[in-house]
Amino acid sequence: ELKVEQNPLFLSMQEGKNYTIYCNYSTTSDRLYWYRQDPGKSLESLFVLLSNGAVKQEGRLMASLDTKARLSTLHITAAVHDLSATYFCAVDEGTYKYIFGTGTRLKVLA
Amino acid sequence: DVKVTQSSRYLVKRTGEKVFLECVQDMDHENMFWYRQDPGLGLRLIYFSYDVKMKEKGDIPEGYSVSREKKERFSLILESASTNQTSMYLCASSPARARPIYFGEGSWLTVV
Fold first, then answer.
1. DSSP assignment, residue A103?
2. Can you say how many angstroms the Cα of residue B15 is from the centroid of all Cα atoms in its chain?
3. Could you tell me whether strands A104-109 and A10-14 are parallel, antiparallel, or unpaired per DSSP bridges?
């Protein structure tokens, strides 16, 4: 059974700091997605990573995928308050199923 | 823009009632999904469908059924609602494999 683990589960950081969220998964897959969820809202797609070594960047967020290590990272550079949200990674196990991590709740303090 | 619409945002139902949650997508996507989201448990897949009239069980199908009579519509049915089905339900769709899935706004269901 595919398992997807994120850490940390909660992250409180100061504005201007850098931090990384980790997403580990338990089976071979080269398709991983990152989503953002604001409180009371639905999930919004952030990044699509479709091969080993894939790196995508949007603003202060950068995501990467290492399929050999079964690890994806979401790096936050110089955090701002607007990045406060819950971030999910999801792995496509190859049978139409997308398995989600439990999410990382990020709070950026002014 | 992709639009996934869940017709009921907030529902309160009684134990034992039959509940229908409707979802419509407007982008001709092949695949549709129902997830439930609970604090500390993330998103768990209930059912998915990769074609009209086709359905596959997800990780937590017990107590639920689904219907996909038309490509754009995927319904989740709780045959006899129970309090442990109080949750947020998210519908999603995707055009194909290796593509992100797009979520609706969610339906908050409370069973009393």
1. -
2. 19
3. parallel
Rounded Cα–Cα distance for residues B102 and A20 (Å): 25
Interface residue A102 vs chain B (CB under 8 A): yes
| Least Cα separation, residue B58 to chain A (angstroms) | 8
Q: How far apart are CA B6 and CA B91, in angstroms?
A: 7
Closest CA to B89 of B28, B31, B29, B19: B19
Cβ <8 Å between B42 and A48: no
- pLDDT in tens for each of the 112 residues of chain B? 668 999 889 999 999 999 999 999 998 999 999 999 998 888 999 999 998 989 999 989 999 999 999 999 999 999 999 999 999 999 999 987 777 889 999 999 999 9
d(CA B1, CA B27) in angstroms, rounded, equals: 9
Inter-chain residue contact B97 with A33, CB threshold 8 Å: no
Give the pair of three-digit tokens for residue B37: 């989201």
Which residues touch A64 (CB under 8 Å, ≥6 apart)? A49, A53, A54, A55, A56, A72, A73, A75
Q: Do B40 and A102 touch (CB under 8 A)?
A: yes
CB contact under 8 A, B45 and A42: no
B58 contacts in chain A (CB < 8 Å): 97
